[in-house]
Amino acid sequence: MNKCLQLILSFAVLLPLLTGCWDRQELNELGIMLGLGVDKDGDMIKVSAQVVVPSEVSSKSGGGKGTPVTQYQASAPTLFEAIQKLTESSPRRIFMAHIRILVYGEEYARKVGIYDVTEALMREPTVRPDYYVMVARNTTASKVLDVMTPLENLPAEKMFNSLDVSTKTWSPTTTVTGDQLMEYILSPGIQPVITGVEVVGNPEKSGNQENIATIKAPARLNSTGLSVFRGDKLIGWLTEDESKGYNYIRNNVVSTISHLPCRKDGYVTFKALRTTTKRSAKVVAGHPVINIKMKNVSSIGAVECRIKIGSMEVLKQLERDSEERLVNLMQTSVKSVQRKFHVDIFGFGQEVYHADPKFFKKVEKDWDHYLEDLDVDYKVNVQIKRVGTLDDSFRDQIRE
């Protein structure tokens, strides 16, 4: 009896371990999607899937005879119906665990809104929310995903890496992941902002191998400005300077390059080494006030005018000029958003909530009205720590 009981207990312990491969998926049966595009197709949603061609990216097979990715398209009333419908043309089931880029067509983002797709992808357990989200400016998502790119032979990977690098080195761009986007849509006191992407050049050659066969590609992808949303619908675009001001306020700037006009002719170029921005709020006599404090550490990148960089007085003047420029960038961005869009993309409402939750709850429904006359105080401290390997410019020593 004891042996029989031991045998039964052994089976009870071992049998669950034998089910570990019940949901296995063979790699040669999957189409790995790296880029997902969403466009409007009448009353339906049009899905464009950028899928890897294994034989073209495998080092063992040699590759190089065709494109490293292919694109499948399908339309249906809902997102996952359209994705499932891709199997009408795809010989493999679409695998979504490795999505790098989600691109919304501008028309879809304006007229339909991005919530339903964002929510569906967040609900799907096979999709990781660390993909970057972009908006196709003046074009469709399918055309963006149809562009072959040099250096990175997988276009979706190129878009992901390019945006990641640009965000760290160029202040007008920023990254938004799937989970961050959902948070922006649902959180009170802030509205979503997403980087745009456009097709530059000749789109007719964008999907051909010849697009990467020349030194200068006939068609290429460029990040361009930040798109502004009210709720889940696109309402407009920020200019480059407005995008810079937004990123400075949101503490998104890691490093960047900027310039100032000299008191005389020419420019001085600055390299931002570190930038930190802190936002806070207070309610004074029933009126919210936002305080923005920024600290910027920069170095001199280039001097294209006749000023004495070795002089402490000149450096102090450059610091003051740089502080004025940064304040002007932030002011321009805030005033433009207040005037044109009437939505809070900076998260000022969140700061007011943290400072006085009861007050914000009273004005939450009319917060956009409060935003139009919101008082914002800017304090910027710029320190120039380095001047490069030269002190004063040797322009005056050039012989005619």
What does this structure look like?
With 400 residues, this protein is an alpha/beta fold. The protein has helices at residues 2-14, 54-57, 79-85, 106-111, 115-123, 141-144, 155-169, 178-186, 240-249, 312-340, 348-355, 357-363, 367-372, and strands at residues 30-41, 44-52, 69-76, 93-95, 101-105, 132-136, 193-201, 219-230, 233-237, 256-261, 267-284, 287-303, 375-386. Strands 1, 2, 3, 4, 5, 6, 7, 8 and 9 form a 9-stranded mixed beta sheet that branches. Strands 10-11-12-13 form a 4-stranded mixed beta sheet. It is globular, with a radius of gyration of 26 Å. The mean pLDDT is 87.
Short description:
The chain is α/β, with parallel strands linked by helices. It is 32% helix and 30% strand. The protein contains 13 helices and 13 strands.
Task: Kindly list the characteristics that best describe this protein.
400 residues, alpha/beta, four-stranded mixed sheet
Helical segment count: 13
Q: What percentage of the residues does DSSP assign to strands (E)?
A: 25-35%
What's the count of strands? 13
Mean pLDDT: 87
Structural category is alpha/beta
Distance between the termini: 109 Å
Order of helices and strands: HEEHEHEEHHEHHHEEEHEEEHHHHE
The share of residues in helices is 25-40%
Secondary structure elements and their pairing?
Blueprint: H1 2-14, E1 30-41, E2 44-52, H2 54-57, E3 69-76, H3 79-85, E4 93-95, E5 101-105, H4 106-111, H5 115-123, E6 132-136, H6 141-144, H7 155-169, H8 178-186, E7 193-201, E8 219-230, E9 233-237, H9 240-249, E10 256-261, E11 267-284, E12 287-303, H10 312-340, H11 348-355, H12 357-363, H13 367-372, E13 375-386
Parallel strand pairs: 1-4, 1-5, 5-6, 6-7, 12-13
Antiparallel strand pairs: 1-2, 2-3, 7-8, 8-9, 10-11, 11-12
